[in-house]
Amino acid sequence: MSGLFTRNNKKDDQEDQHNNTAENGSTSNMARDSAEHEPTERDRLLPADPHRRPPHADGYLDPDDPAVSPYNLWTVRAVRYITIFFAYLTVVWWILLFVSIFVSPPGLHTRGSGFTDFSFTTLTLGVLLCSLLFFSAPSMAMRVCQGIIAVLLLVDMIIIVSIARLRAEEGPPGIASVVWATLMCMWCVTTDRIVASGKREEEERLTGRAETRRTLSGWLGVLLATVILVVYIVIAFFLTATLIIRARDASLTYDGNRYFVDDGKYKVHLACVGNVTEDKNGNPYPTVLLEGGESALEYDFEYWVWSAIENGTISRYCYWDRPGYGWSDNAPSPHSAGMSAENLATALALKGEEGPWILVSAGYGSLVSRIFSARNLRNVRGIMMIDPMHEDLLYRIGNPWIGLRRWGWGILSPLGVQRVIGAVFKARTREDRVYGEDAKYTGKYVKAKLQESLVATSLTKSEVATARTIESPDTPLVVISSGVRMANDEDWARKQSDLTKITDNLVSWDVVNKAPHEVWHTYDGRRIMEKRLKELIKAARKSKDVVE
């Protein structure tokens, strides 16, 4: 019995020795293999442990081990660094576009979009940051959302590049912004796929299988990323819808022509109606030159002048759109009333119009007319101002909070929510959007109002003050004021009285009771305006510069 036990022990010892020899051989083989080649990111992170028991007897890691990460792959790390680099470039471009809203650097001026390039860049930055924030947790939902945004941006790029008017309005900054936005969204889709593939590969290499589960924090991350990207999809959708509407509005015809001003940087719209008439000595009678107030002149201010032509009160008038209004492009920032007066003079010269002029203006436009009059004394035969803005009240539109609010509306204007709703549900026409009731929602108009606000108490006020000192005292003057505004605003009433003294030749000053700031909206207002215009023309014809 004892001998049998001894033989069995010897047999077991021989088997253990054989197993140890095999294991040592295997270990030495692994060491030799390791010595033969340098380890790569796809090598097993830990060698097989012969003493471990299932389920980790093969050397695999637990799926929740921090070492199981797609960042183990150099390709994933490289893609992340490239994405960060793209984000830095986008931030620099975003800053440049932000600055150009207030002071336009050379080459960064967009002629008719206002804030569209800035909005595209902001969307691009948002998509890149979202991709970086959830970089190591890729999901199909993120790829689908990013793909939808990329498709919408591709449509935007095609619209801008293919429509000549939009291409001119956006210019190089706008085109570059939409192209960059499209490429970055495509890059984010590719990045997410690369990370997802790398994550699956690392899980198979380190844990033995691709992980199909997510932790609660992982699902919350996917949900948050999806919600953010859905918001971006809505933004991209409205950007696309607004561009489609802008492309439709670009086909609207207009009277007159558009002329390049300010060394060819942008165009302004100018048109004339009626025929030039002359007195018995061959001298031309004055042409009425209209300057709108706080909205596009074509909206309703021009209509009463047209009726004055029909009944023979006047024979001819010209009108134009200040930069940012109607069919005129945006001007680079900053832009003051005096700069608008120079634009008007340039457009008139390009059209071949020499005057003489009777200036008829309203609201803020009266500041432009006064500057134009002071700079063109020989050709101005009379001034008619309708509830005009006084230079001492410019602080009201130059208030920083007003400027901040307009900037905020400008940032939102490329979405065109009001224009899209108006076109779909309220049957708004192209005329409504270009120069009518909905024109105030366009980025071009908002930028023009922001520009007026930014320089109201500095450049514009200084220009008007200078114009007042050199205005001809003999120029016939008519002032028509809003009775409602004067009754509700003592400062406004006092400054209206002061405006009757900008020349020494006051023809009349009328206060139209029950008339709002837009005096021509009432019948009495239109009647008095036409009556005073007729008197002003008679006074101008009797002036010393006109020979009867």
UniProtKB/TrEMBL annotation:
SUPFAM superfamilies xrefs: alpha/beta-Hydrolases
Bias-annotated ranges (Polar residues): 19-31
Transmembrane segments: 81-103, 115-135, 147-168, 174-195, 216-239
Keyword Membrane tagged: yes
UniProt-annotated stretches for the region Disordered: 1-63
Compositionally biased tracts (Basic and acidic residues): 9-18, 33-56
Keywords for this protein: Membrane, Transmembrane, Transmembrane helix
Top-level taxonomic group: Eukaryota
A Pfam cross-reference name: DUF2417
InterPro entries per UniProt: AB_hydrolase_fold (IPR029058), DUF2417 (IPR019431)
Name of this protein: Mitochondrial integral membrane protein
Natural source organism: Neohortaea acidophila
